[in-house]
Amino acid sequence: MKFLDLTLQTAQENLAVDEALLENADAGNIPNNILRIWEPSRPVVVIGRSSRVAEEVNIDFCREREIPILRRCSGGAAVVTGVGCLMYAVVLDYQSHPQLRALDVAHHFVMQTNQTAIRALGIDVQCDGTCDLTLNNRKCSGNSLRCKRDHLLYHGTMLYRFDLDLITHCLRWPPRQPDYRQGRNHCDFVTNLPTSSQHLRTTLRNTWQANELYDGCLPAQTKQLVQERYSQRAWNERF
């Protein structure tokens, strides 16, 4: 597996990279299996592909604080990220992992791998819900996926030193919630992992066996996706 530790300047560019890696892997233009790590330099709300912005996001607060609200290419509910929240993405090919065509198997495979990585740091995280990692029954990692013909993109968050109050201010009560949440508000439901960004980067790379650096050029499609999708209100506010 190739490893790419890359944070671009804007959140729009960073979201576009994940999708561009998936599209180009599926087209056979870049290596099949890649682990990418990045971390935003400022807060951003990222909503799911089918999310309704007004239902999930406190729009007035975000506009007042100039926090971007962007839509990703994968499903799931809205998340808040920024400094102190490590973002990861894996692109996996079905030829090497044919079992991942079954969505429940894909969720289990990635969550178990990430659980193993974090437990290697001495942190006893659990897999809960469809695709959450929890610490002491509180969510510390939310995840989602997008499937193409021959590859899938699985990406998500890992909170480690994040301002959790931002989640309360930026997000409304979620329209969907896992049973283990048990009606808890945002502050009582989420938590940070007691570790550092570097430790998370290292253990993810080791566990995923991403031993080779990705030294290719960024897909040209990244810029096109920013221009045509991630910077456009027609995409970000379409629901």
Helix content estimate:
25-40%
Percent of residues in beta strands: 15-25%
Using DSSP, what is the number of strands?
11
Describe the sheet with the most strands.
8 strands, mixed
Count of runs of 4 or more consecutive helical residues = 9
**Structural Rg:** 17 Å
Topology as H/E string?
A: EHEEHHEEEHEEEEHHHEHH
- Describe the strand arrangement of the main beta sheet, using strand numbers: 7-8-9-10-6-2-1-11
* Shape call: globular
The second-level CATH architecture is 2-Layer Sandwich
Quaternary structure state of the chains depicted:
single chain
Number of domains: 1
Segments where pLDDT lies below 50 for 5+ residues? none
- CATH H level, superfamily name: Bira Bifunctional Protein, Domain 2
| Average pLDDT level | 96
Fill in the CATH topology. Answer: BirA Bifunctional Protein, domain 2
